[in-house]
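hey m, so remember when u said the tokens were messed up on ur end? i reran from scratch. heres the input so u can diff it against urs
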Amino acid sequence: MPSEGFHDRDGLIWYDGEMVEWRDANLHMLTHALHYASSVFEGERVYAGNIFKLREHTERLINSAEIMGFEIPYSANEIDAACIHACEVNNIIDGYVRPIAWRGSEMMGVSAQETKIHLAIAVWEWPSYFSPEARNKGISLKTSKWRRPPPESAPVHAKSAGLYMICTMSKHEAEEAGYDDALMLDWRGYVVEGTGANFFMITDGNVINTPPPDCFLNGITRQTVIELAKKRGYKLVERHIKPEELPDALEIFVTGTAAEVTPVGKIDDLELTVGEVTKNLRADYEKLVGRSEDAASAA
């Protein structure tokens, strides 16, 4: 267990093809990624010893690196095997997997063509992202002043470290105001997501509305929940959502590897209830990944 932070715990980290003691998995202060955010990563969940949709996450990691202009020196099969091995040697049955690839310290400056590309995979036990109370009653969101940039301004379809800068700033501001998380708008003013989770809104007739992923990640959990909604026969519409539409919502929930399926109980001053559509889809998701709702609530 950590004593003072994630840098100080027992365990092994898969680092450039070798298992390294957790406390020794370090990098140089002049690592390009530290200064210029030239890194990409994934977040994956382990349920009952199985990494949920591992190959999809690995493929997205590789694609994110390509978007960022570098190639991870391992195949998808090798990355999958490394993730599984890291879980096995650390005895992770239910937990979290964090693969990350980054440019090294061979060059210092904006140019980085000659830097070595590194890959590391850390795994650890991790309960629900939000508290059991928040999962049951719904989390609270505060609309952020920061906007998601247009696709012409940033690599919006890569899961790259730099794009999370405004998420951290937004989440800190929301937490300081007493909220659980922030609601992000895009540069046009449309509702798009939370700081680490995709957005769904239920309107009359149990129609599920979700923003099109034109300037943010098309989350793997998002895609999974869309499939589950269609199996239940719910009508699902991908469309731009304006903030002024939120008072008309019957239910709102967010999805993500960490958040799973989490209801929203409040946005700014707007109060919401946790409805049947959200409960049904959360139950379907828990069943799919092999985790009971009781276990999720107790986590």
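this time it looks ok to me. Residues 37 and 165 are 10 Å apart (CA to CA). if urs says something different then somethings off w ur setup not the seq
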